[in-house]
Amino acid sequence: MTDEDFRYWKQWVERHVEGYDEIARAVFIEGFFDGMPKETVFTTTQVSEILALRRPEKEKRAHKSPARREAH
């Protein structure tokens, strides 16, 4: 999926799940993915961004704090 198409669909999902609780958001997002044509290809980043809409308060906190990587 192109970045432009993805931005459109992500905003579409955001508008539709606004005000929903976490469970309703998850159900809506599952339906979104199920409703896309089978040949639609998302990047892993795109999938992660859509799934993050299930919990917008956690995503906001994640953006405020710097990301850390730990060496193993």
Describe the structure.
With 72 residues, the chain is mainly α. It is 65% helix and 0% strand. The mean pLDDT is 86.
User: Overall 3D geometry?
Assistant: globular
The percent of residues in helical segments reads 55-70%
* Secondary-structure-derived class: mainly alpha
**Average of pLDDT:** 86
Please report which band the strand proportion falls in: under 5%, 5-15%, 15-25%, 25-35%, 35-45% or over 45%.
under 5%
Radius of gyration: 14 Å
Major β-sheet profile: none
Number of helices: 4
Distance between the termini: 34 Å
| Number of extended strands | 0
* Poorly predicted residue ranges: none
The ordered H/E elements are HHHH
Give a brief outline of the structure.
The protein has 72 residues and is mainly α. Helices cover 65% and strands 0% of the residues.
List the helices and strands and how they pair.
Elements (H helix, E strand, L loop, with lengths): L2 H15 L4 H14 L8 H9 L3 H9 L8
What are the main properties of this structure?
mainly alpha, 72 residues
